[in-house]
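2024-03-11 09:14:02 DEBUG pipeline.ingest accepted 1 chain
2024-03-11 09:14:02 DEBUG pipeline.ingest length=375
2024-03-11 09:14:03 DEBUG pipeline.predict start
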Amino acid sequence: MGAVGRAVVDRKTKKLLQRLKPGEIAVIYHKDIDELAAKNLVKSKVKGVINFQPSMSGRFFNQGPAMLLDAGIPVVDVSEEELFDSIRDGDIVQIKENGEITVNGRFLCKGVILSQDLISSKLEEAKANFEKELEKFAVNTLEYIRREKTLLSSDYTVPRLKTDMHRKHVMVVVRGKDYREDLLTLRSYIEEIKPVLIGVDGGADALLEFGLKPNVIIGDMDSISDKGLMCGAEIVVHAYPDGRAPGLDRVKKLGLDYHIMPVTGTSEDAALLLAYHSGADLIVAVGTHNNIIDFLEKGRQGMASTFLVRLKVGHILIDAKGVNKLYKGGIKINYIAALFVAAFFPIFILGTTSPAFRHLLRLILLKVKLMIGFL
């Protein structure tokens, strides 16, 4: 199974996805493609994927490659990392069935086409490596706790916002796995309770996608659209403890007001801490990371901070991940039947006790008979 299309190139998959159009070839640098990235590639109707990192290294159970294969999208892994810059945006790229790649009609290299057999083999490797990866994660987490005790002691600055979160429900939205399904299921909760809405980077776009305006946006601003940034929400730029804030320049260029929150960990962690220290009565997390596979899929040591932050805020934190599988909305036939009986009962009582109403029913019945030709 081959593919031909215009190349879209980026070392950061989430940035590439913002530019990707149907029928194009995604050229990525993404070790162990995670489920969310694969879902978005499928949604973008990409024609093929060229990866200059192992799509499935066998380090742990990552579901992304299998999802792409099931969607009929050819994926070819290229081991020669130095060739990444040989493909530019707009080049016409062809992926041949044997793994050969041509750029503008010229042979570039030969990679390894992902197959079901290869994925099965890597899954077996993952089973053998899982305990080792789990141990590494645990050691890293303990080291992080020793080094970053300030996350538990609150020895960091939390900005004072105009948005009032004291004794309120706060929903923290990350554009992560199943966020669409969970937001859809939580629609009635949002309409009834009206929680404060915090979008973490692209999570702000996720809220806008559902017609919801975020009250606060926090992050390093690398995966949010200009439309999202300019929606009127209060902006909190996540910075490193040393003061460096990668997203600050972009916010300044747009001429937007902002706050800075210097704290270790991910922007997701910063959002949870912001809600916690702003006095939230309850935090509802949508699309966030909450299990070992999620942490390993992120592939960064800093994910230990997420584990630590959840220890701190856990007593007021509810994770909405998978809530759409627990409860399926919609009108059930037994609900309709109960409503019909409840509505019919008073009509029946009225019809048997009121002469005028009985006369009206006879007229209606006569009219119906005339219409269907009984008389």
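2024-03-11 09:14:41 DEBUG pipeline.report The domain at 3-119 is CATH 3.20.19.10 (Aconitase; domain 4).
2024-03-11 09:14:41 DEBUG pipeline.predict end
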